[in-house]
Each structure stands twice: as C-alpha cells, then as structure tokens.
Structures
1.
Amino acid sequence: MRSSARSTFRHYLGRHPVKLLVGSALVTTASLLAVVPPRFIGAIIDDVTAGAAFGSVVVLALGIVLVSMGEFAVRGFGRYHVIDSSRRVEYEMRNDLLRHLQTMDTAYYQRQRIGDLMARLTNDLTAVRQMYGFGILMTLMTMTILVFSIVAMLGVSVKLTLISLLLIPVASGTFWAIGRKVHRKFERLQAQFGDLSTKAQENFSGIRVVKAYSQEEPEIASFAAINSEYVRRGIDLAKFSGLIWPAMAFMIGTAVLMALYVGGIDAIAGELTLGQLIQFVAYLYLLSWPMIAFGEITNIFQQGWASLLRLQEIFDARPAIGDPLDPVGAPIRGEVEMRGVTFAYGGTLVLRDVSFRVPAGGSLAIVGPTGAGKSTLVNLLPRLFDAQQGTVLVDGVDVRRYPLRSLRR
C-alpha cells in the first residue's frame, strides 16, 4: 500500500505543474534576497568603524529596506501559488474519493463504519492538504535558505561555517527518531477520531431508538469514554511533536555560542572584521529558521503521510460487483427466475436453496417475519448482492451478464 500511496502522492503533485514551478521559482528568489541584508549590515558596521561618510551608510540602509520589501512581496506571491495548488489538490482528491466510493458495492458499506469514512474525507484529507501546501512550501523555503545561507557563510569564514554545522548530524538523528514516533502516534490518533465520528453518527442516525429505550446516559458515557481516549492520544502525540522545537532551539543557540566564541577570537586576532563577525552571526540566525522548521516539516509530512495511507485504503478498495466483460444488450421484459439460490451474511444463512419463476407482468407474494430474507431476495435482482450459490435470471439470462445500469434503471 505504501508504493500505491507514493504513486498517488506523485499523481496529485503533478496535476498543477505550472503553479508549483512558479511558486518554487518565487520562493527560491525570495530566499536569495534574504541573504543580502546581512551583507549590507556587515558593510555598515565596518563603514561606521572605519569612519566612512554618512551617505554611504544611508545608501546601505535603504538597500536593506528595499531588498526586504522585495523579499516580502516575492515570497508572498510564491506562497500563494503553492498554497493555491494544495487547495486544488484537496478539491480534486475529495471528488475522486467520492467518485470511487460511488462505485463500491453495498457489501463494502456494510463492512465499513460510516463515521470512519467521514473522518477520512474530512480530517485525514485536511492533513494531506497541509502536506501538499505548507509541507512543500516550508520544504522549499528551508532548503533554499539553507543552501544560500551556507554559501554566504562560507564566503565569510570556512572555519566558522564548519564549526557551526557540526550539530547538523545530531539534528538529523533527532528528527528521524521523533518523526517515527509522531507517525505512529498520529495514525492511532486518526483511527480514534474515526471511532469518535462513528459513535456520533450512530447516535444521530439512531436517536429515536436511543430516546425510545431511555439510553441517553449509557450513550453519553460511551461517547465520553471514546472522547477521553481521543484526548489522551492527542496529548501523547503533542508530547513528542512538542520536543522538536525546543531541541532545535537549543542546538541553534549552541551553534551561535560556538561561532561567537571562535569568531570573537578571530576578530581580536585580526582575521575577521567586526562587520564580518556580525554578518556571520546574522547568517547563522537566518539559518536557524530552516533548522527549527525541519521539526515542523517533520510533523506535517509524518501526519500527512499517515493520513494519505488511510485514504489510500479507500482508493485501493475494489467493488466485488461490477459490469460483465461481455454484457447483454437486449431490453429487459421482466421475467424473473431463481434456481437454487443460497445467500448468507457472513456466517448467518438467510436464504437456502430458493427456486421460483415469475413470468413478465406476473406477481409473487413473499411473506415472512423480520429477518427472513425478503429484502435480501429482492436485492439479488439488481445485484446489490450476488448469490453465493445458485443462479438469478432475468428473461432467462444470468443477471451477472447484464450491465448494472440496465438492472437498476
């Protein structure tokens, strides 16, 4: 199923290539602009230290303002295109899921819980949309800022850059360990949300029975128990996902301290100017956002992927009843016949060796207590179910040779 989910992910990702390409290009441009202001800040500090003319400082300050405004505008347009594509994917996937569910046979819905299906088409689909939207957007922003910041840092000091990046392997291991936990716990949380939705749906649809037999209090207690478990699993997930941001903030703070210590020594020794040291620290703080964002990206993709796997279960389901390969196209007159028909719901036998024939235009009375199989007998004609044994014929032709639309029209 995971390979099917990967194919589904790529399929919807490729539905709006122009939006994604334009958004990616704009986000990349914005990230490139983001590394310019620290260079200007370093130049301003060096100019002030060297006693340069006030006019040059003003020009650099205006440059920072203009570049920052340009970055803001470009990043905003890039964000719009990526988020817009994710909304379109959500719309198309919801339609495709409903279209696929419409093809499923009646037995499928007897096996599934309606509340769980509703949870998948709402809660899980929202998580998938977040993965296609903010997940991809933050990945683009993070990777481009990371690359451009490291290149800019190398231009200032190779030694300081290597020292600052020593913690990246530690961060990667942290993401991997926490991410696995988040994925499993989010799957359990979504499954519990399905139970919660099912319980609510059962109460709403069966409210007359609940009221008739005074079952309000037991149903409230049952719902509260399921809801409490949902809250417990949500808190359990929050404990792990909440570890990522503090861990990354600690690593970034450690990297800044190391850079200030070593860079301060180099500045005193004359190997770096004060402006270059401040410029490097500014790049390091610029780099801190991608490092911290890795944690949020991990959460979004782990939760989105867990939800996509749940939706893939719907996509992978195939109807047990479908149109024949060689359908009969003759118009139906209405003669009905059953020969030795046997049918069971699971292990419960409902019909056993039933045989009869009703000519076109004729009638047949079928009587019996509730659960005797009267409705089941009728449901075999339009193939809402198929008989496990025996044959159902219309106009002398097995109903399995007719197109479903002809039988059910």
2.
Amino acid sequence: MASGISLSMIVKNEEQYLFDCLNSVKNIVDEIVIVDTGSNDKTLEIAEKFNAKIYHFYWIDDFSAARNFALEKCTGDWILYLDADERLDESSAKKIKSLTQTRESVGYYCTIKSYDSEIQRDHTIRYIRFFRNNPEAKFTGKVHEQITPSLEKLNYKFIHSDLLIHHTGYDISKEGKKQKARRNLKLLSEDYKISENDYVLFQIGQSYFVLENYSEAKNTFLKLIKSERLSKQFKAESFSYLAQISFNEFRSADAEKFISNAIKLNDTQPFYHLLLSKIFLRLNKVKEAKEEFLKSLKLHKDSSGMNSFNLQQVNLSIEELLYYGLQLAYQSGDLNLKNKMLDYLSKTKEMIFVEFLKKAEVKSFNQISDITGYLDSVTQFNISLLTHLISKYDNKEFAMNALSQLYQKFNNNTDVIKQYALTLDSVNKTQDALKLLEGNFDIVKSDPSALLYLVMIYLKMSQYEKALEILNTIENNFAQFEEVVTKVRAFKEKFFRNVRLHKSEEPAY
C-alpha cells in the first residue's frame, strides 16, 4: 500500500459537477479512483483530465457494493471519499495533510454542508469521510451507505475535525428532491427487510417526509422514538419531525409535546427552539414565544457553523430568525423587540426591505408603481409580515393590487391567499375571492382561519351546504382549538338561522 491520500468516488453522468469536485482536491490527493456505473455523458472525459484511475462497475442497486469496489482499488494510506456534487472547502484542503501524521487507526468526522436555495435553509451533517485505509473496512447499506459501523468493529478511534465539504446536489427543485427520495425509499425498504436497522428506518422516515407522505413519516418516527437502540441525537430528530408534522396540521398541543422532548434530548439546536417559539405564539403564549425565540437567536450567534455535538443540524439563516422576531414583535406590540430586529436587519443585505416595511407600516404607498422597486426584496421569510401590513390599508383597491402582485410570486403561501381573498371580497369581488380559495383548497385546508374565511363567503353567497361541509371539517380536524371551535359554533348558529330564514322566505305552492 502506497503512502498518501486516495480519493475514492463512484459516479454516473456527473459532467455537471465532477470538474469542480476534482479541482477542489487535485493538489492534496495522491490518487484519484473513479468507479463509473454507466455514464453516457462527458463524465469520464473530465476524470481523465485529472489523471484519474477509472474502473467500471455494473450497477446492482447497491451503493455500498460500488463503494467497496472503489475501496479495493485505492492504494493510499488514507481514504477521502466524496460524491461528484461535493467539493472540499479551500481551507480544509490546506489542513487535511496534517491529519495524516498519526499512526493510529483513525476516522475523522467531517461536516457536509448541503445547500437549498429553494427553502433558503442549509443542512449540515457530520460523517466519517476521511479515514486510514484498511482492507477489512467495508461500507454497509444499499443507500445512505456508511463506513462507520465497519470502522467501529475494527476499533478505529473517531475524531471530530473541522474539515468542511460543500454539497450542492440537493440545491434542486422540489420535484428533483422527490425523485431522489423515491429512489432512496425503494433501496432503504429493501435494506430494512434484510436487517431492521434503526438508522435505516430513520432514513425511511426522512424519505417519506420529503415525499410529503406525512402519514407514513409520522408512523415511522413514532416507532423510532420508542426505540432503545436509536442514538439520542437521532431520537431528538425523530421528535422534531413529529413536531413539524403536528405543527403543520395545527395540532399545537402535540407539536409542543414532541419538540419539548427533542429539546430535552438536545438543547443545542436553534431550529428546535424556533419551532417551539412558533408553537407558543400560535397558542397565544407570547412571553414563552419570546423566550424561545431569543434562545434560538443566541444559539445561532454562538455557533460558528456547526456544533460538534450535533451530527445533524438545520442551519437557520439570520434573515429567517430576524424576520420571525419582527413578526413576533408586531403581533405582541413589543416596541423594543421590533426596534432591535429592525436594527439587526438594517446591518444586513435586507436594507431595501426594511425601507419597504417602514413605508408600508405608515401607509405611504398609494399606487402599485410605488412598490414595484421593492418586490425583489420580498422573500418567504418576510412575506407574511408584509401581507399583514398591506391588508390593513384603508385604500382597498391598492391593497388588492399589491396582494395580486405578491400572489403571483407566492402563490402557495396561505397568508397571501387568504388576505388576498378577504381584500377581493371587501371590494365586492366575492366571486373572485371564492374562486381563489377553492382553487387553492389543498394549500389552505390546514389553516382553520382560511377555512373560516371560505365559510364566510359561502354563507354570503347562500351556499349553505358547502358552508356546513367546511364547518364540519374544521370541527373534526381542529377540535383541540377552543377558540376555533367557538367560532365554528357561532358560524353554525348563523348557518341554521340563515337556512331557517331562507326557507321562511320561499313561496308556498
């Protein structure tokens, strides 16, 4: 076995990514081993430019089999394994050689930072990606393959390093993520049938979550939180997924219980505290909401990158935190918190939106041309706050046109849809409001306030059967919300009163 570092990779049709990957390590690895599983693009041409040793492997729906074939071809003392859509950070490339000085059997945890511009949140995961070569080391798992279990059996020492790997492969469309999840789910399910491994089951739950099959995701994570074998961190993540599902279904009591359990297991995750703050705000526990928000903000500021304790972490953007804090300040009337958030935001790239927000708050806009230059500064993190302010305009024609512009950009946002519908109704465009809500029913059906708006319009248009159907849906799905149930009962009283009145006005024959 030669000294030095071997880069081990498996590829198929990676011409889009491979050059950047190999370019990031060309000066620090002594050998590049590429195992191709059937490329028909320029992948191998790119690999040849970096003097890679190229081998071919017949794909058998098993990532570990391909990885292990690649390992067998590596001759270096140390193995670095990457995917084509990854690249080693420049600062890490300068440090990696120093980690090879030890004679011990060592595996180094590296941080893999995945980017997602669609939701504007990054995720970081820590895996063993750099380790001393050993002919007995083998990958396991048909997908989400791991080297760690094998190295554990070989009594390797695991060390947390600050090596950073950038992962761009999930910076793709929602449908692209679902395609990957469907592929992974098939292989994971086959793996789980062979060996009921909790890590594999966790990955199955994540795949269901990405596929928006929340019923199966929920069942999977409910099983995992009862496991005695699952690590504390992955159990905390399982509780977090259950909390997210419950929150999105407006089951706030369950969401609070689940995320509180996650925090008990791991209180260093900023996302957990932010979610708990949102749950408290929905429950009108404003004081507790502020406390959890400030904890999340502090954890975000204190962590430079990723806490070494967390093997998996959602990286919140500072903009997401600050805009939520601002929304919390507006809803609670906390002037100090509002000014603090605006001050933070004014020091970031969000200065244009801060100006937009201040003008919207004092209702200084009169026509659509006044806001055109600001629309590019509106994001998923600040849209709800802006929608709330615009909906309060006395000039309803302007508000309607402004919300129309926002709806074109954020047509899957519940707040935009319901405020736009209400504003349409206020300018006597009730039929348009109804069309908007009915056309987006799959989006608004999880929001009881949006459904109540729909009921209100049905009653206004004397569509009593449809109104009653929605009222029964709300009463069944949101029974835990006393305030919602009270409103539903009030609407039902109005409904029966209107029906009786309608019947009394019918002519007798």
3.
Amino acid sequence: MINLILGIGVTILLLVLISIGVPVYSSFAAAALLITVVLGSDLSYMVGSALWQLGSFSLLALPLFVMAGFLMENSGVTTRLILWVKSITGSIKGSLGAVTVISTALFGAISGSNASAVATIGTIMIPQLEKEGYSRRYATALVACSAPIATLIPPSIAMILFSVTAGLPVIACFLSTVVPGILITSGYVLYNYLKVRKNPEIKVYEKKDFTSFYREIGKRSLEGLPALLMPVLVLGGIYSGMFTPTEAAAVAIVYTLLVGFVAYRKLTIGLFYSSLVRAGTVTASIMLMLFCIFCMGRGLMLGGYPEMISDFVINASGGNTFMVILILNITLLIMGMFMDDCSGSVLAAILLLPLATNAGIHPIQFAAIAGTNLGLGNVTPPCAPLLLMAGGISGISLKEYFLHGMKLSLTVHLPVVFLTSYIPQISLFLPQLLLDNM
C-alpha cells in the first residue's frame, strides 16, 4: 500500500514542481530524495546505478550530435538546405510553408533535436513567411508544430536516450520513427497547401520555363551538395553498418567542420568556439537531468512501481490491448505537455515500457508510440514548450497563435499517433526489413 501511495505522491510532486517552473532536473532530484526517505533505499546504490547508466557508450552520441547541430547552424548548412528545397517548390502557391516543414525534417536528419529545429528554422523562416503573406500567427504555429518531426527523423537524441534507458538497439529505435515522421511531414505540407491556396495575400512566384526551372534546381543542388550529403553520410553509414550511431555523430562533426571551414567558408574560429560552449552547456544540462531521472527511476524500480502500474492498468482494462494503448497515449501526451522530449523519453522507458510489453506491444513499436505522443504533447497547452519557444522567436503571445497550432496538430499529428499506436507495421516495417533478429 505504501508503494502505491508513494507512486501517486511522486507523480503529483513531479507535475506540480514542473508546472510551477522548477527546473526538470531539480524536480526529479526532489522525487528521488522523496523515494529514498520513504522507502529507506540505499542512496549510494541509486547514485552508483545512475552513474553506471551514464557511462553507456551509446550516450556518447548525445554531445556529438548536439555539437553537430550547433556547427550546422553556424556553417551555412541550414540556409543551403532551405534554398535547395525552395528551388524545387518555389512556383507552387504556399511553397514556403512546405519549405519550412521539409527543412525541419532535413534539419532533424542531422541534429536530432526539436528545440534546435525551432530555434534554427524559426529564426530563418518566420520572417520570410511573413514577407510572403503568411500571418505571423500561422507562421509561428507552423514552425512549432513541425519541430517534433526533428525527433522522429533519425538520428534522434530522444530515441538515443530511450534506447539506452530501455536497453534496446539504438538503430531499431531510430528506424521505428521514420515512417511516422514522413507521414507527419507529408500531412503538414498538404495541410499548408490546402489552407493557403485560396488566400490572395500569399505571394506566388512566376512560373519559370522548363530550362530556367531546371537550371535553378541545378544551381541550388550544386551549392547545397555538401549540405545534402551530410544526412546521406550519417544515415547511410549507420544503416549500412559502416559505423555505429556514436561514430556517425563523430563523422557528422568532422564533415560539418570541413563544410563550414572549406566548402562554405562561413565557419570561423569564434563561431566554432561558440558552438563548443553551447554544446557543452546543453549536454551538461541534459546529463544532469539524466542523472536525476536515473536515480529516481532506480528508486521506483526498487519499490516495484513500474510493475505495479502495469498490473493495475491491465487489470483495470480487463487485459484489453486497445484500452491499454489508449491509456498509454493519454499518459504520454500529458508527460509531453509538461516536459521536454528527452526527459519524457527516459521516463517513458522507465515507467511505461513494462506496461506496454506486458500488454503485448513490441518494445520497438512503443519507442515510436512514445516519440509521436511526446512530440504532440510538446505543442499542446497548458505548457506546450515548443509553442512557447516559437512565440518567443516571433514576439507574440501564445493566445494569438494557439488555435492555429491546435488545428495543425489535431488535423495531422494526432491521426499519425493513432496509426502508429494501432498499426504495428508502421513502426516495425523498417526495423524488420533492414535489421536482423527483429
């Protein structure tokens, strides 16, 4: 009985602390301390276990991909990717909205961070969208709602953390979110086209003749070739077995340095140092958060809390898998409202994965379910961290673009969540096709 009360108390404590603005790592540290005091757990064991988990080789990919993302931001790679996509779609009405969504997906194929996607793509695209007739409210919502795609298109920092915590193959978790990511990308492109096609304020560029059109594509492709090769190199190397995700992250840094210093000549020693400092700061904050979550997670496991959740939900639902998945979706959505995708992924692996596997859900499918739900939660009020971040870039309040964001996510993202949850092959098709022992 005390374990059940403790579990409920820890959950309430976490939600209250995070909702009032207490840093995520402090909230989890407080929860870990509460567990230690109530259960009389061995604190040194919890700390030692957390430190052991932090020593995982796969986690080394985390700071490397973060660094690659900042270098890409400062080396001109993002701008070249945007110009290349724009050269293909430029004469279609609403093309700049499509450029925004597709560029976010391409950015995710290199950096793997939705927060970085909002900051980088939003800073570049929101002013351009406004110049071409899009309202600032819609432009802000489009950038924010597209950002979760960056964590679904591999490599994904959130999936690295989930796989390490759950003890699953990183590559399998990467592959599980590819199809959902493509579905959401395609859905937002179509939504944007249908929304703006009859809007007279949206600028339409004069259609070029056949020769000029392909000459422009050729020019932008040549300029963007170093940038376009980066996701091919990283993902191709991972899936061909040439190198591990951690090694791929190191290759991404070296390649970005070559592109920034030699090909585009946008990167300077000052910008390199700035990227290094920012990557170190972000990595330190994530690792501190992970340490606190791992401590709390170990305490919950010692108390049998994950098994308790699993037994309670399965008994309450009568073993109905449909209902269990629905409960998982609601829980993950709420988690995404209050915390970022990284901490949410780790917590999902600790608390909810046992429930999913006991209900007959494949662990790799659950990785995709968690990724899509947490992304949706990140753009769902009351907290909606990605919506707030995009609003900070555009300089408008949440109430001004809240409805645009909800229409986008409910029309496109939510249906993909249900498809991923109830059709296993959406997330399992690629892992089973490309990997052995799946």
4.
Amino acid sequence: MRFACLISDNFEDIEALGTVALLRRADIRVDLVSVQNEPIVTGFYQTAVQANKLMKHLKTEDYDGVFIPGGKHAWTLREDISVLKVVREFYEKDKWVMAICAAPIVLAAAGIMAGKHYVSYPGTEQAIEGGIYEQKMTVTDGKIITAIGVGAVLDLALEIIEQVLGKERRDRIQKNIRYKAFETEK
C-alpha cells in the first residue's frame, strides 16, 4: 500500500505530519509530494519538510491513493490544474482519495464531491457544492475519506488504516499508540 501526500507552503503541519507518521506506523508507504516542485516545503507553523517527490514526477499508477492535508494551502491547491487533474485521476481509477480540514474544497474543485457524504472544517461547506455535509470527526463514502480538522488526525489515520488494511490492524495501531486506551480496555 502506497499513498501520495500532497503538500505546498502553508499546509497544516499536524494534519500532514501526524497523519503520515501514523500511516507509516501501520506500514503504509507515504511519499510527501511537493506540489510547488521544490524539495523543501514549509508548513503554516514554519515546519520545514523535505519532500520525497516532486509533483512533476508523480504518477498515479504508482500509488493506491492520495491524501491532502488542510491548511491555507488548500485554497491555493483548489486553483492548481495539476492538482485537480491528479485528484480526478485517483478518483476515476477507483483509488483512495483522502482530505482533512479545508482540503475537501480541493476534492470539490476537482469535481468529485457531488452526492458524496463528507466532513470539512466549519465554514468551508459553501465551497463544496453538491456534497452532503455530516457533523462527524471522519466520514467515509466509498473510497473518499474526510476529516474535520487537527483534532481528528488520530481518528482519520485510524479510519484510513481500517479501510485499507482492516480492523485488526487498526485495533493494533490504536492500542500501540494508547489512543482511547481506557475506553478500549473496559
């Protein structure tokens, strides 16, 4: 299993790096892909990140899905024709498409959200025409997985792990990271 995480300057640091770290913990390969085609990308909170790959070298056939973290960069990505093309390609090839916080606006701009259930950061719903908003931490509709924001990073990563690798792997990772430890040990 291999995913591409699309990042550009002003991505939300925790959403990108926290989710990627948890997916890697579950043995999912994740490449940090620089949309701006520069090897160093800086998050909104000034975390400088070395990308594994540049967008100009991204081939959807090499991946099982794409993940877009939120942050201010989502507003830029939704105007980027190359990003919209890549999102549509993943969707049309029946691969995983995942987004958190404001990033579902990118999925909407790519034209894949009509009739789809989703969650996004409050206030971004008006930019997601045709989608069906749900007030949940994460929402899965087919192979589209969305999450509300930073507070849902663990929930999102665990949902992705369960969807692509199964409940047993999710439970093992959840136990290992001690997430909701006292709730799950009753």
